[in-house]
Amino acid sequence: MPAQACYFLTWPFNTDMMIGLVGGKFGWELSAAGPDAAVDFALGELRKIFGEKVDQHFVKGDFTNWAYDPLVRGSYASERPGFHGARAALAEPLDGRVYLAGEALAGKYSVTCGGAYLSGERVAGDVMAALGTG
Ligand SMILES: Cc1cc2nc3c(=O)[nH]c(=O)nc-3n(C[C@H](O)[C@H](O)[C@H](O)COP(=O)(O)OP(=O)(O)OC[C@H]3O[C@@H](n4cnc5c(N)ncnc54)[C@H](O)[C@@H]3O)c2cc1C
Q1: Whole-structure pTM over 0.85, yes or no?
Q2: Rounded to the nearest whole angstrom, what is the distance from the C-alpha of residue 38 to the centroid of ligand 1?
Q3: Closest CA to 54 of 36, 39, 35, 34
Q4: Domain boundary among 75, 94, 121
Q5: Span from the CA of 31 to the centroid of ligand 1 (angstroms)
Q6: 43 and 92 fall within a common domain
């Protein structure tokens, strides 16, 4: 049974909302189980923290299915233990013609939008240099 860890972001941007995040194998399982199961799970976790009074305050729950959105298929990249070098391999241009960029290749800024932006900027520079236009 995979770990069912869930952490919550509370009152993001000063809104009356809590966002629960799960990952790994359990994230895939919850995605397959569907929105009702995911909301039930999150409510259960909140009851463990705050007790049954959570139900009085619950208005509506929703679920973003990152795993099965065909244009996302997961979330940000994470390498398996021992495979950190995979990022460097991914950063190598394929046949000197195909260049990859994004958060996975952003070094210490991986997993972030800022990292994705910086990686894109850097790779655009590499492409321009390879074309002799940089
Ligand atoms: C739940 C969650 C919360 C997050 N919170 C934060 C946060 O608070 N702060 C932060 O900095 N970062 C956060 N991130 C991470 C951030 O969203 C990513 O690091 C960033 O979006 C990665 O950018 P990217 O351009 O590398 O990839 P993406 O944003 O994934 O862009 C890849 C694009 O390629 C498209 N695509 C995929 N396959 C194809 C194909 N075959 N043909 C054409 N297009 C294709 C996809 O549709 C997508 O538009 C969060 C991510 C998640 C999932």
Answers
A1: no
A2: 22
A3: 39
A4: 75
A5: 18
A6: no
For the record, the structure tokens of 12 come out as 């993001």
**For all residues of the chain together, what is the average pLDDT?**
92
Position 95 in a domain: yes
Does residue 103 carry a pLDDT above 90? yes
Shared domain for 109 and 44, answered yes or no, is no
Residue at 39 is within a domain: yes
- pLDDT for res 36: 96
Give the span between the Cα atoms of 41 and 38, in whole angstroms: 5
Find where tokens 């009356």 sit: 16
Number of domains in the chain: 2
CA distances (Å), origin 78, targets 31, 71, 83, 86, 91: 18, 18, 10, 10, 15
Residues 20 and 71 in one domain: yes
Residue 103 Cα: closest atom of ligand 1: 26
Name the residue at shortest CA distance from atom 7 of ligand 1.
112
Chain segment 38-55, per-residue pLDDT in tens: 999 999 999 999 999 999
Atom of ligand 1 nearest to the CA of 115: 19
Angstrom distance (rounded) from CA 42 to CA 33: 13
